[in-house]
Amino acid sequence: MNRLGTADTTPTMLAVSWGGQYGIALMLLDAGADIDAYCSQSNQQLVHFIVEEEERSRKLGPKAKADYQELVQRVVARGYSLEKAREDHKRWVSWPKKYPIAKIGELRRKEVAERIAREKAKAEKAKSEMSD
Question: pTM for this one?
Answer without folding.
Answer: 0.86
